[in-house]
Write a structure and sequence with these properties.
Blueprint: E1 2-6, H1 14-17, H2 23-35, E2 40-46, E3 52-59, H3 63-75, H4 81-98, H5 104-115
Antiparallel strand pairs: 1-3, 2-3
Helix pairs in contact: 3-4, 4-5
Length: 132
């Protein structure tokens, strides 16, 4: 799992944002501290020939940090389609943790979970919103 966040939004440069220039850094650093085993990494991505996007990346790979995220998001669930992505990600985590992804069936299930997340999602189930 990874979490990315732009360093800034809009056409303002960092100098004109004043004390708000690092507000996303502080939020993401708090997340990193909570997860304990991950780091905050600045990144630059070329969005077009003339525009660079600068941001921060938190990548979660350890079982301990994944379990912290799962516990947190089961206690404070997401309400958008990100909840559906989280459900797929949690299933993928369990496949990896049990090592069943090493079988042909497990590999196919892992691939199917990944292909049905984010912009590739075509199946939406909003039943989790009934209890909000």
């Amino acid at each position: 799992m990874r979490l990315t966040q732009k360093q800034r939004y809009g056409n303002l440069d960092i100098e004109s944002q004043g004390s708000n220039a690092n507000c996303y850094f502080n939020v993401l650093q708090s997340i990193v501290n909570y997860l304990s085993i991950v780091r905050l990494v600045p990144y630059t991505r070329l969005r077009s020939e003339t525009f660079e996007e600068k941001g921060y990346l938190v990548r979660v790979t350890s079982t301990k940090s994944r379990m912290i995220i799962i516990s947190y998001l089961e206690t404070y669930p997401l309400l958008s389609s990100k909840r559906l992505d989280f459900n797929n990600w949690r299933k993928a985590h369990l496949l990896v943790k049990s090592r069943s992804y090493r079988t042909l069936e497990g590999t196919q299930e892992l691939k199917q979970l990944k292909e049905s997340m984010n912009d590739s999602r075509s199946n939406f189930d909003w039943n989790h919103l009934k209890y909000v």
